[in-house]
Write a structure and sequence with these properties.
2 domains, mainly alpha, 125 residues
């Protein structure tokens, strides 16, 4: 007797509960999706889909190259634009640092600790 006919004979007298079959199918689909998602997260593929943070050196380079291409800047314009953007980024960092310092002065020690944790959660990884 072949294995196919053994399987047929074993399943011949059995009826399957449609709710059970549906539940098992949905569970398997969910678990498969979770497994694929976990693998993608572990491989870091999700980070490659997002552009780098605007205020990082890599982000500045990406943003500047995008501007040069989209605006079709001449070399002289590109040089001036880079200087202007570098000044802007320095100003941006200064404003962030000053604002953070002002907020920390308002908070007690426990609040400052929580504030630091909140900032760390928001920063790009």
């Amino acid at each position: 007797m072949s294995s196919a006919s053994l399987l047929e004979s074993a399943l011949a007298g059995r009826t399957w509960n449609p709710k059970l079959v549906c539940t098992l199918t949905l569970t398997l689909v969910f678990l498969s999706g979770a497994l694929v998602g976990a693998l993608l997260m572990d491989l870091g593929i999700h980070n490659r889909q997002r552009p780098p943070a605007f205020d990082t050196s890599q982000g500045k380079t990406v943003y500047f190259e995008h501007l040069k291409k989209e605006l079709d800047l001449t070399p002289a314009q590109a040089e001036q634009m880079e200087t202007i953007l570098n000044d802007f980024w320095k100003y941006y960092r200064s404003v962030l640092a000053d604002s953070k310092q002002q907020v920390e002065q308002l908070l007690n020690e426990q609040q400052r600790s929580k504030f630091e944790r909140l900032l760390q959660q928001q920063s790009p990884r």
